[in-house]
Amino acid sequence: MKNLKLLAALALASAAFAVSAQNIATVNGKPIPMSLQDEWVAQLIANGGKDTPEARRQITENLVANALVEQEAAKRKISDDPKVKFALDYAKFRILQEALLRDEMAKHPVSDKEIKARYEEEKAALGNKEYEVSHILVKDQKTAEDIEKKLAAGGNFAALAKEFSVDTGAKENGGDLGWNRPAVFVKPFADAVKNMKKGEISKAPVKTEFGWHIIKVNDVKEVPFPSYDSVKDQIREGLGLKKQQNFLNELMKTNKIEYAK
């Protein structure tokens, strides 16, 4: 009987030691499991660090400090503070949102086909030319046509821009807009520029949402489009962000939401 009691005691002691061995420390009786330390080590390695005894000691100290802070905050009921509650809720929201979006992107990643299609789309839209353009912007068609007549009679484009243009950002430079691809301009302006040659002034004022433009192309140059390999990562990131936003928008559409009146 004594032997049975001794064996039982040894078994319990062995089990307690096994449980204890799975913890790296206890703080006021609360264990810190080794698995938590392992997770921190994995994160350290993912960030380029190394799994060393010194690193594990430092992680253990940090986890002990975290436990002490958590316990002391609980004693003082810090989490009942409205500002702290808000911060905790916001942190939880951000963590869950990031995890959800990672999961969504893992299930629906941006494909190489999508990246290539966007690259070709951007290449076609931007073209392979840049134009050095000046313009005179006015609010009505008659004023624009009067300026066209002055130019046809030998008027100086830069001087007329300073006198009449309502584009305050460019008028002091004689209407100069610098070098740009046509795609950066609104469509009617861009379409006009693409059909003009070096030194040419638009044959008729161009109407846009901003008013009426008299356009002059000062110079034209060929500009090679970036190679696919040099921009594919940037395109992948942009498409990924768009997919994430579309996913969030879809959640808004497909779930029942009732706003308070």
List keywords for this structure.
two-stranded antiparallel ribbon, elongated, 261 residues, alpha+beta, 9 helices, four-stranded antiparallel beta sheet
Account of the protein in words:
By secondary structure, the protein is α+β, with helices and mostly antiparallel strands. The chain has 9 helices and 6 strands; from the N terminus they run αββααααβααβαββα. The strands form 2 sheets. A 4-stranded antiparallel β-sheet has the order 4-3-6-5, sandwiched between helices. A hairpin with a 2-residue loop joins β1 (23-27) and β2. The longest helix is centred in the last third of the chain and has 27 residues, at 228-254. The radius of gyration is 34 Å and the shape is elongated.
End-to-end gap: 76 Å
Provide the low-confidence segments as ranges.
13-20
Tally of DSSP helical segments: 9
The tally of beta strands, per DSSP, is: 6
What overall geometry do the principal axes of the alpha carbons give?
elongated
Average pLDDT reading:
91
Strand content: 5-15%
Q: Rg from C-alpha positions?
A: 34 Å
Fraction of residues in H or I helices:
55-70%
Order of helices and strands: HEEHHHHEHHEHEEH
Q: Please describe the biggest sheet, giving its number of strands, its sense, and whether it closes into a barrel.
A: 4 strands, antiparallel
Classify the secondary structure makeup into a structural class.
alpha+beta
Strand order of the largest sheet: 4-3-6-5
